Amino acid sequence: MDFKEKIRSIKDYPKEGITFRDITTLLKDGEAFREAIDAMKDLVKDEAIDKVVGIEARGFILGAPLAYDLGVGFVPIRKPGKLPADTHSAEYELEYGSDTVEMHVDAIEKGEKVLIVDDLLATGGTGSAAVEICKNAGADVIGCLVLIELDGLNGRDKMPVPVYSLMEFPA
After folding, report:
1. What is the pLDDT of residue 102?
2. Active site residue: 5, 16, 31, 95, which one?
3. pLDDT digits (tens, 9 = 90+) for 129-169
4. What is the pLDDT of residues 20-31, one digit of tens each?
5. Coiled-coil annotation: which residues (predicted)?
6. 5 belongs to a structural domain
7. What pTM value is reported for the model?
8. Residue 163's domain spans which residues?
9. Is 11 within a domain?
10. Which of 58, 78, 102, 149 is catalytic?
């Protein structure tokens, strides 16, 4: 299946000069969604994985069925103030300013092999913050798996772990 055909591109969203890659058009197609999860699983089939860590919110949509299929636990990484127990946090830089992500302190045991999942890798800021949180918890981060990687933004180069991407689009 050509997954790129299932992605809607919206020009000048959320601001002029940006082309937004909308995955909802893939998600609404049951066959395409299943095949995309299977294809993402194939990218990491040789890795030992104890937990899948999904980055809010689209990383939840892709990471949870992947964790289910692998028979491993799922851990959410969220925006500040969304998790009820004690958290680890990491700050990352945006184009104008910064943001923070959090994960429960007890979500990962020391030495567990984790795979971070998100829908898209652009500049690598959120992904790098997720790696930092997991490593601070004592995890062995085996990589970051994304549905889409944007070329030209050098996000892969900023990631301190291997990156697996199902498809690439120009930034």
Report:
1. 98
2. 95
3. 999 999 999 999 999 999 999 999 999 999 999 999 999 99
4. 999 999 999 999
5. none
6. no
7. 0.96
8. 47-170
9. no
10. 58
